[in-house]
């Protein structure tokens, strides 16, 4: 008899947070690894950072290990000479010149353990700085960027010519290329910036990122928008030969979502049944149990992709065996490496007949770095009380992985998702499978048109559709939903379903309160 998987054994906790005093020893060791030919921080310098401006010092912790960090201070940049050095802007590394009333966040170092490059660690640190600049209503982020590959080209190009070649993508520089890709522009080139930087020949590019939300008349930050970008994958079901082939297809789509700067990538319901195409088992009830043998590989794959590409993934859904029962479970793989799961509550007659699927009985609402969300698998969206409960618990987005084999089944999912969006003033997202699995019993044909839907009011798209795929082909749709517009519309929209419900007459009540989380 199989037991429930302990998801904690798969989790790889990644957290971007402020540096603490107890992290200093690890950061000193990290710098030795990252900058082997340069003088490391002194302990008293890092202690000074934490004493003067703790909010501006960030690190990335992965499974209890510090693998990246960055330091910064606030300055009024107009007070500094254009040709300043690193020692000038940092007061020789102690940041005692930090000015809480200044207008610019100045970044003085970023480092990432080489073992973990390719996991978007640097980008997460840069995003933490940008969030801080917005929170503190700072005009811009400025930094002096090394150009460590310049020593390879100094006999061909002047510093200005080298920077231009990197900007035109004719040359790759690990620092300058990264900064340009993260929205920084070159202000000027400073000679003699960091004397110990031999690879850059002591040159540095002065880079700036402008905070477009900056309010010139006040230091206070006003929130005008809260966009969340979603990539929905309309996944093509076709015969494959191995789990590795499946993994390559999945990573391709996660990479696409990352390239679009998405916060969420959403896969369809039971799209892992594609694995049945090489399992060589024709009896559905036996095939589904063979499929559950890939549960650990599936969870490990998506956990790694969420962390690697810095994106939250709704992993469609997958058949999982627990206590000798088969459940249809959708997993949330957060980009910090943590995992949550939602059981399908309402099982279709088809699932019962062919696979013996058992329903779950817990409705969950999950915290993410983009607010609260809920997952309702296919048939579940057709029961309005589930969405009503989720929204009452704070959900702003309902994700609906689905799998339907004909247009009528698809339309039930679509119409209900749009109805839930209107009646609950919430965003809904549906992701379905397309194509055919001709060798798999009970999974032979698919029909889908995936999309992102909004409430119906002036603030949203005219027809309540952010975007949708063409029907029944392999495709993605990318769209932004704005949580700030949703908040304002709930308060002062043309109609206010959440406020106007007659709770004195009716309410949603669960009989198994102990299972509702």
From TrEMBL:
<dbReference type="InterPro" id="IPR003010">
    <property type="entry name" value="C-N_Hydrolase"/>
</dbReference>
<feature type="domain" description="N-acetyltransferase">
    <location>
        <begin position="14"/>
        <end position="212"/>
    </location>
</feature>
<keyword id="KW-0378">Hydrolase</keyword>
<comment type="similarity">
    <text>Belongs to the carbon-nitrogen hydrolase superfamily. NIT1/NIT2 family.</text>
</comment>
<protein>
    <submittedName>
        <fullName>Carbon-nitrogen hydrolase</fullName>
    </submittedName>
</protein>
<dbReference type="Pfam" id="PF00795">
    <property type="entry name" value="CN_hydrolase"/>
</dbReference>
<dbReference type="InterPro" id="IPR000182">
    <property type="entry name" value="GNAT_dom"/>
</dbReference>
<dbReference type="InterPro" id="IPR001110">
    <property type="entry name" value="UPF0012_CS"/>
</dbReference>
<feature type="domain" description="CN hydrolase">
    <location>
        <begin position="228"/>
        <end position="483"/>
    </location>
</feature>
<dbReference type="Pfam" id="PF00583">
    <property type="entry name" value="Acetyltransf_1"/>
</dbReference>
<dbReference type="GO" id="GO:0016787">
    <property type="term" value="F:hydrolase activity"/>
</dbReference>
<dbReference type="InterPro" id="IPR036526">
    <property type="entry name" value="C-N_Hydrolase_sf"/>
</dbReference>
<dbReference type="GO" id="GO:0016747">
    <property type="term" value="F:acyltransferase activity, transferring groups other than amino-acyl groups"/>
</dbReference>
<dbReference type="InterPro" id="IPR016181">
    <property type="entry name" value="Acyl_CoA_acyltransferase"/>
</dbReference>
